[in-house]
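Operator note (shift B, R.M.): manual run for Rhamnogalacturonan lyase requested after the automated queue skipped it. Running by hand, logging everything below so the morning shift can see what happened. Input copied straight from the record, untouched. If output looks odd, do not overwrite the archive copy; leave it for review.
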Amino acid sequence: MVAVATEEGNFLSWRLLGHEVTGHGDTGMTGADFNVYRDGELLATVTDSTNHLDTEGGPDARYRVAAVVDGVEVDAGEEIAPWSEGYYDLPLSKPADGVTPAGEHYTYSANDVSVGDVNGDGRYEFIVKWDPSNSKDVSQRGYTGNVHIDTYTFDGTLLHRIDLGVNIRAGAHYTQFLVYDFDGDGRSEMMFKTAPGTKIITYDDNGEPASEQYITMPEEDLAAGWSHEDDYRMSAADYREHVVGMFLGWHEHPEVVEGNWPATLESAFGIEQRYDYPLSRVDAEELTDYFLDEYAPSRSGNNRLREFEGFIVDGPEYLTVFDGGSGAELETIEYKPGRHDDGLMWGDYAMSRIEPGNRVDRFLAGVAYLDGTHPSAVFARGYYTRTTLVAYRWNGENLVEDWYVDSGWTPMSNPFNDSPHGVDGTDPEYGTLTTQGFHSLATADVDGDGKQEIIYGAATIDHDGSLLYSSFAEAPPQSAAPGEMLRLGHGDAMHVADIDPSRPGLEIYTVHEGGPWAPLGFALRDAATGELLYGGYTGVDTGRGMVGDIDPSRPGLETWGSGSVGLWSADGERLGDRIPGTNMSIRWAADMTTQIVNGAIDVTPTIDDWQRGRLLTATGTRTNNHTKGNPSLVADIFGDWREELVVRTTDSSALRIFVSTEVTDRKLYTLMHDPMYRTGVAWQQTTYNQPTYPAFHLGSGVDWSTVPVPEYWAPGSVGSLESRLADLIDSGDVAGAAVQRLGKPLEQAARHLERGNAKAAAKAIEQFLHQVEKPRGGTVSDAARASLGHHGAVVLRMLGG
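Run finished. Output pasted below as returned.
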């Protein structure tokens, strides 16, 4: 429950949990009702929603809410006070400023945020990525400060900090951090890319560092001479030496040996033959200077490779699983796949802009229920040329690979002058994945088999790792390749949702940046098949796109894009040129329409409604990621089904959390109990942050009969039931012989679940419920019987009993 002071009174909002839902009615889901108390006295009984406005409540009022089933209170929340300022500031501990090897000073600001219950207490903790002021795009030269990932409780207690070290560059494309309960123990783990120098810092009760511990490097890396003291960041001189080494080994490169690339560098550069091969050191240095000073600048004025510094193109790369509560390292493995080289094979030298360390270091990550039951972590590398994805299950002790997808290299005839985009990779199954990926991914059950797929931009990977489809379209006459079947190709914005509720299943809305080489600048496709529903050619880089219910008079979600795209209805009618913003959407309004979060760089963030205008000005805060204008997080983390806005204060001393205080008469369970939405919150922080959507149509015209009653297993449910029993024993509501008779079957259920035997656990819960209803000796009060019976039945239903 959350309470917020407003001009009209104290607004109260709380969750309808998935297990409290029994069905649907005309204006919402059915299930538990709620008693609302102010200062210990019953204030209201709410049946049609999960919010209430107390017009007589003052700043000193204290509130709690209790779930009511069949007229009996079966669950009660803690007493809370209203937020006096209309928002809540979660205090942060900003990392110290730093100085790069080039002498540049940098500071820190809070960037992306994710949430997870890291200690199993039923409350979300906040995981914050700190971005240095000199963070870079992968195409930008220069050193960056270290990336830090902090974990905070709601009161601002810093539990631990992961310092990724000097060998992980800072920027949106580099660090994708997943926070999720991967092993089902009721506590979230963290998982992300690490390197030598990554360390865990814990803190004492006074907020002072208590310990520092480096991650564990593999024995083979230690034997090879790598260490946590290493610094792989390149200076300009280092890069020149790196190129010299590359040229010295040119004759031995497999692509040269196999005859796929020119036998000499002079041939690759288009100049007359000057040197014998293998090159001598002197000759390699001369060719390097020619490459840096003449060839590269002749391709583009941006190719200032003499200034190339701060990149990391060598050294070990790891994937580490951390305990969310303590920060302890649980396992570290080699990152798959490794970079292979500095981007030469990835096409980073082939185009007019020579950008070592660019395509090779494009990372994405997400969470997906690939088997329909257990969450897997998905990590991806590359999308312009070679495209790779790997999925892992965390079983509590080890990472177990589900599958690995690799398009293979995109063939080039000359790595210093070629066009590797839009070229099939060498793998016979996955070759068409190349150039289809976006700066984000999504996970959803697109084909209705109960298992989630990976939507990788213009292609989709099935739950088993096979290629479901890769989308192509015929290029129109005005394009660069009339009549050819071309990839839809890379883009910056993607939305997977039930956009058109008149059609079965989900849809995918994308915009594409290929310009005259993209057959479509925007497209709405069937998520199950990739079939084009509507779209159009733009001939330019269409950089922004969004979906949302901004016009409640029309069915479904509207779609829109930048440039000439305009605003469209769900069924493909163009509605006009004028469009809302495209940075981030939020479900803020009482009527389930969609609002837009605007504001970027130094502009104060706002929440704007397409028809009603400005609904909120988030004074004293900022968004992230420059022109992208992303809030730190938009998610349903408190209260009813609406989403909260989480942004950093201007000085990053706090996360400021805003809650919608519009009174709604719509009753819906928390969106976090929809698996597609919950996994979406986990991947929202990935690279170019995109909104999160549930698996059902969420809009002003929602058909409640299509909203599913959640079926899920809540990790820790038996433990929660044991805690509830312990509280009732302490209060005297359960006493005598009933203590052992009720406690024993719960202990048995917990042991069976540890062994993976859900059927036996369900039988133990059935025994528990029998003892609750008809105790043989001892005392079980009516209140205890109602509470334990309700929650025991919930656990049994989750177990399939």
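Quick read of the result: The chain has ten helices and 50 strands. The chain has a mean pLDDT of 96.
Leaving this for review. - R.M.
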